[in-house]
């Protein structure tokens, strides 16, 4: 494998002035201000032009923007292979990205999910990162994992799309919980407990939905959960830290300037947990803090006063 995968890449942005600025300054001043972008990267705000002759499209937008984007892609470049990096559910429909894609892309379009522990900033700095590319089309998963793989970005293939997407979505809710716990000074023991019992929640729901246990123990489950619960670059963790300081959710989201998928995902996951009768106490506590005005301290007290039980993963 080479140091860089060396593809001819065009970065499309819907905002024309941002695309032009990135092109002339070689810098994304809003999101990665101190990083110099590769001289080989092209920029465009014209989606049709960007997709013309494209061999692969990576959709890196918040979950809520995936459906309209894929609809446009299917209209402009029917059949072009698509990989998405979104980690969350579509609000309202409670659908994961692959379900949205199956409704918007032409049948038989090669497509899949790219996920795993990967703060954008560290990837942009060329720091070592490992990811998973999941597709129901196993040949496509292997080919595109290989195409994106380099010495700096190791990409593993998987066929468990549901498991990969579920882990990536639910870990954002648990990162809010870890932020709350750390922000309240509960210490390292509590954080390790939250991560481990959080993984049990991901696994319980994931198994109920048909995912594979090994996926939840892998990069897109445990790996991303550890990263997001412990790394201060996580926007979801930051939301938790600020909730613990007593700030309102509205003010936190206004100041963040980025998406924190765990906020919407908490609602969707709790609904799914009810539907599938899966016990998810940490997710429920985060939901109560976010949407039911329960104080972080009271939510933690509630978690601590639960009946002791077995460590098993069963529902
Ligand atoms: N930032 C990170 O380190 C990572 C993010 N992700 C996931 O990738 C997805 C996107 O996250 P970020 O880029 O970090 O979010 P962000 O909030 O930092 O940036 C989102 C970008 O998408 C653009 N956008 C929003 N709606 C759009 C639309 N309808 N059409 C086109 N562009 C649109 C925004 O203008 C912005 O440039 C999320 O689901 C996130 O969970 C996954 C791995 C790492
Ligand atoms: O998914 C991520 C890293 O893998 C980024 O997490 P946040 O969205 O919480 O910043």
TrEMBL record:
Residues 1-140 form the Glycerol-3-phosphate dehydrogenase NAD-dependent N-terminal domain. GO terms for cellular component: cytosol. NAD(+) binds at residues 120, 235. The keyword Chloroplast does not apply. The active site is at 171 (proton acceptor). Substrate binds at residues 87, 235-236. Sn-glycerol 3-phosphate binds at residues 87, 116, 118, 171, 224, 234-236. It is found in: Cytoplasm. Keywords: Cytoplasm, Lipid biosynthesis, Lipid metabolism, NAD, NADP, Nucleotide-binding, Oxidoreductase, Phospholipid biosynthesis, Phospholipid metabolism, Signal. This is Glycerol-3-phosphate dehydrogenase [NAD(P)+]. It comes from Sulfurimicrobium lacus. The lineage of its organism: Bacteria, Pseudomonadati, Pseudomonadota, Betaproteobacteria, Nitrosomonadales.
């Amino acid at each position: 494998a080479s140091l860089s995968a060396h593809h001819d890449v065009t970065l499309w942005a819907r905002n024309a002035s941002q695309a032009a600025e990135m092109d002339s300054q070689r810098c994304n001043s809003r999101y990665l201000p101190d990083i110099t972008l590769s001289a080989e990267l092209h920029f465009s705000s014209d989606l049709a032009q960007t997709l013309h002759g494209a061999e692969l499209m990576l959709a890196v937008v918040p979950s809520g923007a995936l459906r309209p984007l894929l609809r446009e892609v299917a209209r402009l470049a029917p059949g072009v292979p698509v990989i998405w990096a979104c980690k969350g559910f579509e609000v309202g429909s409670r659908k994961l990205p692959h379900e949205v894609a199956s409704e918007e892309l032409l049948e038989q379009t090669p497509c899949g999910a790219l996920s795993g522990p990967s703060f954008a900033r560290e990837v942009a700095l060329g720091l070592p990162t490992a990811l998973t590319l999941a597709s129901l089309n196993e040949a496509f998963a292997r080919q595109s994992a290989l195409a994106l793989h380099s010495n700096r970005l190791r990409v593993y293939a998987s066929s468990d799309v549901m498991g990969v997407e579920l882990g990536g979505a639910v870990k954002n809710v648990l990162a809010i919980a870890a932020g709350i716990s750390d922000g309240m000074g509960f210490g390292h023991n509590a954080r390790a407990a939250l991560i481990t019992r959080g993984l049990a929640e991901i696994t319980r729901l994931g198994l109920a939905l048909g995912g594979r246990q090994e996926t939840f123990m892998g990069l897109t489950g445990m790996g991303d959960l550890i990263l997001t619960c412990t790394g201060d670059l996580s926007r979801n963790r930051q939301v938790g830290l600020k909730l613990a300081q007593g700030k309102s959710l509205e003010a936190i989201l206004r100041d963040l300037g980025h998406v924190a998928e765990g906020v919407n995902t908490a609602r969707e996951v709790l609904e799914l947990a009810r539907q599938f009768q899966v016990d998810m106490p940490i997710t429920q506590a985060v939901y109560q803090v976010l949407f039911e005005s329960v104080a972080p301290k009271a939510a933690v007290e509630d978690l601590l006063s639960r009946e002791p039980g077995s460590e098993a993963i069963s529902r």
